[in-house]
Amino acid sequence: GGVTQAVPIYEGYMLPHAVLRSSLGGRLLTDYLMKISTERGYCFTTTAERDVVCNMKERLGAAAPSFEAAMHGAADAERSYELPDGQTISLGNERFRVVEALFCPSFLGLEEQGIHELVFSAIMKCDVDIRKDLY
Question: CA torsion sign, 82 to 87 to 78 to 45?
Fold first, then answer.
């Protein structure tokens, strides 16, 4: 997908007045992983390769408790991924960088709120009496 939405739900009902949307979505994250994979010498360009990178993102992408620590401890971040042709490639801190882009869209050159800010802003659009229940 090409969008992310923060949709507050209260007592089973969506609160449409508070729904917020961002253009940051899975396709941009896949593009970003394709781009940063070139740092390891990998080159993914075809539609089929995009699908492989999308799967790699979904299987290996992870949010690090501390992004800075993850960037400096790359050895234990390494994960292998088997390509459809049987070749195996490795991802290290790229696994965390692709997910961190959700929180820091500037990685992708976007001037948008991170997903955490989007959720907070959506909650703040809701009635003050129900906000605590939305966390």
Answer: negative
**Residue 74 above 60 pLDDT?**
no
Q: What fold characterizes domain 24-106?
A: Actin; Chain A, domain 4 (3.90.640)
Task: Compute the CA torsion angle 81, 86, 89, 91 (nearest 10 deg).
Answer: -10
CA distance 104 to 135: 21
Token output for 69 = 């620590």
- Token pair of 116, please? 């955490």
Task: Give the architecture-level CATH label for domain 1-23+112-135.
Answer: 2-Layer Sandwich (3.30)
The predicted-structure confidence for 13-53, as pLDDT tens digits, reads as follows: 999 999 999 999 999 999 999 999 999 999 999 999 999 99
CA distance 16 to 43: 42
pTM for the whole thing?
Answer: 0.87
**Six-digit token pair at 79?**
């994960």
